[in-house]
Amino acid sequence: MAVKDFDWLGNSFGTATDNLRAKAGTKVEETIKEWLIERREVAREKLDEPKGSNPSRDSNATGALRASVGWKPLVTNGEEVLLEIIAEDYWDRINSGVNGTKKSFGSKYSFSQLDFNNSFQRDISTWIRDRGIQPREPQMSYEQLSYVISRAVIRNGVMPVHFMDEAFSEEAIKDLADRLGKTVKRIFE
Question: For 104-125, how does the pLDDT look when each residue is reduced to its tens digit (9 = 90+)?
Fold first, then answer.
C-alpha cells in the first residue's frame, strides 16, 4: 500500500493533518514561501556583488536576470512537494561562467572559436548602451566598440557568479528541512 502525503496520520489529528500538507494557507506552505523569498534575495545580492577589482562592476547589465529570479507555485504530487526555481534562460551561463578561448573557468559552457554571430554582438551593443559605456576614442562607433568587447569576452570568457549555487546550496536545503521540522513541531504543540 502506497502512503501518500500525510495519510499515515489518519484523522486523529484533525486540523493538524491539514496544516502539514503543502497547500495554500498552511503553515508548511508559509514556511516554504518564507524560505524561497530569502533564497531569492541571496541570489539577487550575489548578482549585485562587485566583480573583479572594479567595485562598480556587477552582473546586472539590465537587471532582467536579477528581476527574473523566482519560483513557480508549489506543486504536490502525493509524497513530494516540487519547487521549481525560475530565471531568465541564460541564468546558468552566468551562474557557471563561460570558458573563453584563452581563459578557462572549468565551466561546462565554452566559446569554441573566436568567431561570433551578429546576435551576440547586438547583445553586447545593447549592454554597453544600457551601462552608458562610451568609446574611449571619439572616432570609434558603438558598433566598433561592441565588436572589440565581443572579441574580448569570447577570448577571456565570462567569470562564474554562482548566484544560484549559493542561494540553493545543500546547506540552504538543510535549512529548509530544519525549518519544516520546527513548523511541524509547533503544529503538534
Answer: 999 999 987 555 677 788 888 8
pTM attached to this predicted model? 0.76
**Which stretches of the chain are DSSP H helices?**
15-20, 27-48, 64-68, 91-96, 118-131, 142-156, 163-167, 170-188
Question: Please, which residues bridge with residue 71 across strands?
Answer: 85
- Alpha-carbon separation of residue 163 from 23, 26, 129, 131, 149 (angstroms): 28, 29, 25, 21, 24
* CA separation for the pair 9, 189 (Å, rounded): 16
Rounded alpha-carbon distances, angstroms, from residue 177 to 82, 86, 147: 14, 21, 48
Q: Which residues contact 164 (CB under 8 A, 6 or more apart)?
A: 43, 69, 85, 87, 91, 92, 95
